[in-house]
Design goal:
The complex is a heterodimer of chains A (about 290) and B (about 325). In chain A, helix 4 packs parallel to helix 7. Chain A contains twelve helices and two strands. In chain A, strand 1 and strand 2 form a beta hairpin. Chain A has a two-stranded antiparallel sheet. With about 290 residues, chain A is mainly alpha-helical. By secondary structure, chain B is mainly α. Chain B has a domain of about 220 residues: MetI-like (MetI-like fold), CATH 1.10.3720. The longest helix of chain B is centred in the N-terminal third of the chain and has 35 residues. Chain B starts with about 25 loop residues before the first helix and ends in a 10-residue tail after the last helix. The chains are: A mainly alpha (about 290), B mainly alpha (about 325). At the A-B interface, helix 1, helix 4, helix 5, helix 6 and helix 7 of A face helix 1, helix 3, helix 4, helix 5 and helix 7 of B.
Amino acid sequence: MALRDDVKGTGTYSLIAIPIMIWTIIPLLWTLALSLKSTDALASADANILGNFWPRQVSWENYQLIFTGGASELFLPALRNSIVVCLSATVISVVLATFCAYAIARLQFPGKRMILTTALGVSFFPVIAMVTPLFDVWRNIGLFDTIPGLIIPYLSLTLPLSIWILAAFFQQIPWEMEQAAQVDGATTWQAFRKVIVPLAAPGVFTTGIITFFTAWNDFVFAISLTSDRARTVPAALAFFTGASQFEQPTGGIMAAAVVVTIPVVILVLIFQRRIVAGLTSGAVKG
Amino acid sequence: MSATPVDTDPSAHSAMEPHRPRGSHLSDRSRAERNLGWRLAMPAFVIMVAVTGYPILQAIWNSFFAYRLTDPENRHFTFLNNYAVALSDPIFWQATGVTALITVITVVVEFVLGMIIAMVMHKIVIPRRTLRTLVLIPYAIITVVSAFSWFFAFRTDTGYINHWFAWLPGIDAGTDWFGGFWGSIFVICLSEIWKTTPFMSLLLLAGLAQIDTSMEEAAEVDGATYWQRLTRVILPNMKAAIMVALLFRTLDAFRIFDNIFIMTGGANGTSSLSVLTYNQTIDRVEIGMGSALAVLLFLFVLLIAWLFVRVFKVDLAGGRS
């Protein structure tokens, strides 16, 4: 009886899962479809199938446009800037947060609750409220439209997130092993380096991925604090132009969108479990 | 250090810690631990506070001045004038209303959708892993990419929505979604919901996973309907997770910028507070007024956080340290 109920229930859930999966995947397929449409297919519904969704003839002209054509001068530097800025902000944040979170999870010192609360408060900060003063100051001290001029404000997005998630990860680590090492004569520092670092590496890595996603997603800082040389991909997308002034840049935008989406989708496919653990352990008591 | 004999934060002692004697002097061991703790935590903390604290202080300072970037000679102190101008301007209240409207729509829809998705993810057997992976993907997609995808989907020239849903009354090939306020708000909210529901559903899933299944089973044995089990057993038992998820998403939604900027640029009265602040600062280079708007937005966010923490008693740091 109970078994039959269970099986029946499972079938219902599988059925509800179908619309959920369709709802998730259609905008992704749509982005891909647009990037594969020629200029003609973008302009006329007759060149497409499935109700103007998928092109009858797949065209690579949009990818040529962004990699070798007219838009490459805008897209390729932006792609490089995005990678440099996001990786730098991620590495700096995760390294600093690793030490901080270790101290919070492991050591007794006054003020650690204050650090966590501050991290949380900072992550709720409206980004645009930081842009106004930075826009003014960065212009005066020459950081406007530079890579460091983006990395510094990105830390305000990535640092609190890293601290919060890592502190949660570190609180789940079996600390007895460190104590065992200390009983065997290791100092606090040695115990940290030899025992905790290998235990903590997965959490640090996952935090890095989530932090990178956050930096990769930024748009407000990127359009406000750059004009040309340090522009990242999300900002560049907003200022794309077509092959000519009168041509819609739709295809080029979507091809670029696909290029910057592929790496994050691959990361999600490989590290799904860990990302979920990282996102939820930081937010819910556990 | 030795002047403070008693640990100022008693909650910092976790149960698994050996209880330390609280004499008039800290032992060398615990003093060393304290110093190491501060040394390890300080760089991250100081940088985090500097990169956010400095700009907001500078914004508060700038907000007291009439200051236009193109006209620095005329920069002068006006005290609260920028605030008076903003608060008496209908454009500000329109933007506040739009921001609140989008926040309420997206958070409510995401809560219902997120709850359904979380329940399916919690109970499903096949295809469990595929579903969990797929659901997570929008979380990792750049908001601007999501905005463009939905924007082009709804446009009359490139879109498929009008073709697919032409059978619905009021929709035909020529329906212009971005011609008016409600159409624009609908698509903006849709993109926001698509992108951020995964985060909501994951937080809710974590809450669901913590419910003791025996309670639900007991209710079922006692003859409770599904609805009764949901409202009397499941939801009350995951209240903490729900409140945290709602707080996170409300504060996030209140900052909405990317979707509006890409789809309408604030046309048809769809400017949010963030878009309004951006336009004042970057387009009109009114640093003084832009700063005042930034500070007001910051105060709104503080107010929302305060409401959640005080009124709804959300314990964010609960169970930590």
